[in-house]
Amino acid sequence: MDANVLENLTNLRRDLHQHPELGFEETRTSEIVARRLVDAGFDVTKGLGGTGVVGTLRKGSGNRAILLRADMDALAMHEETGLQYASTVSGKMHACGHDGHTTMLLGAAEQLANQPFSGVVHLVFQPAEEGRGGAAAMITDGFFDRFPVDAAYGLHNMPGLALGEIAAVEGPQLASSDHWHVTFKGIGSHGAKPHQGRDAVTASAVFLTQVHTIVAREVDPLEPAVVSACALGAGDFAALNVIPETVKIGGTARAYCAPVRDQLEAAIGRHAKGVAESFGIEVDYDFTRRIPPVVNAKVPTAIAQKAVRSALGDEALHTTFPPSTAGDDFAEFGARVPGAYVWLGMGPARHNGQHHGTGYDFNDACIPHGVAFWCAVVAEELG
User: Fold this and answer.
1) Which residue numbers delimit the Peptidase M20 dimerisation domain (predicted)?
2) How far from the centroid of its chain's Cα atoms is residue 8's Cα?
3) Nearest CA-CA partner of 20 in 127, 110, 131, 105
4) Among 57, 69, 104, which Cα is nearest to 371's?
5) CB of 344 closer than 8 Å to CB of 157
6) Which domains are seen in the chain, by residue range?
7) Is residue 230 annotated as involved in ligand binding?
8) pTM of structure
9) Is 96 marked as binding a ligand?
């Protein structure tokens, strides 16, 4: 990559880093994206799914269409990097590298304008990946009706993977990400007279012990899964002689395949209802399906692997890499058309921090590798 181009993209990335915007609030970011896409010769659609942007480039007579996706949103976290270009917005920071993802796809857009191919490329700049459902919002807003595609590609940075290396692996990459809520409703009583009530607090303790046995004792050990209780609410520390009537518990469930996802939903509810029955209390249970798993399809994964080899060399490609129990709503695209989601190495994690950490920063040295990969995907798909 030309040094002037890299300097320009690095300055862009750091500007985005200084001005983080949360999901569905990416107004400044989306305006920057749209302006640079127009300047590169793309047809631009703004406001899809709220603040999403799609840049479309058609060349030649080919009918095949693909999408390349980058996420734009930041996280509600306080930055502690001490960088000169640290976040200027209190309580918000780019702690997952979406500023880098946006920059690399824009860099690719500006190179694709001069790259020969035959077909259609849709560059998707997605809002609200961090748990707010941006991909689903774009699809609900008519993405696939307006921009039919034959394949979808996503990329995410990965601290700990060597700088510029890319893992493109067939099969599960990220888990489903679902929420569950359990509310035990007992009969409150004086703390000194528990026999006069029905104790929802003790019931919740039994449930918490049981629910964490689901993966260990009910799920096939060859099928990865996670069930975690992450929130608990009951009582008042100003009234420690009162056993409360209600206890609320919430958590997450993760799986890589539909049958296990179904199994987790059923098992959490069964344990909640069983505990409530044994304590003679009531229970409300709700399981919210948020994001399906990201599972790389065979054909686009093979194309992504070819793209890595052609752009970065054989030594840069990893065809095996452990999946993550984190989630990414790129799954909404990959569940509808064949997709491939790759990991771009950022170098040692200690230098840049881990995802969602207050000391995280995207490694700008990754930019040329990400841009080259995106351009190579287009060449392999539509060249």
Assistant:
1) 179-273
2) 27
3) 127
4) 104
5) yes
6) 3-174+293-382 (3.40.630.10), 177-291 (3.30.70.360)
7) no
8) 0.92
9) yes
